[in-house]
Amino acid sequence: MDMKMKSIQIEGKEVELLVEYPVRFACMEHLEQELDDYVNDFETAPDTYAAQAIDGVGVDKRCRECGEPGQIALLKEKGM
Ligand SMILES: [Zn+2]
């Protein structure tokens, strides 16, 4: 699932995001595919974090591909 967010809590710190790029999650099995999809969809490589480093009520951490709990977050930080 794509989530458009202005900012997100990563390891307790508020990190500003580029809103035009969604936050996605992937399980380890689908990580490579999701990285490829992100590059194909947005022509940019995402920043990646461990899903467990992402805080936030209402953040849907399921893998975009299979719906299993996501292990890796794909997003674009402002200024990166
Ligand atoms: Zn998956």
TrEMBL record:
InterPro entries xref list: YyzF (IPR025626)
Pfam families named among the record's database cross-references: YyzF
Protein name, UniProt field: CxxH/CxxC protein
Organism field: Brevibacillus fortis
Taxonomic placement: Bacteria, Bacillati, Bacillota, Bacilli, Bacillales
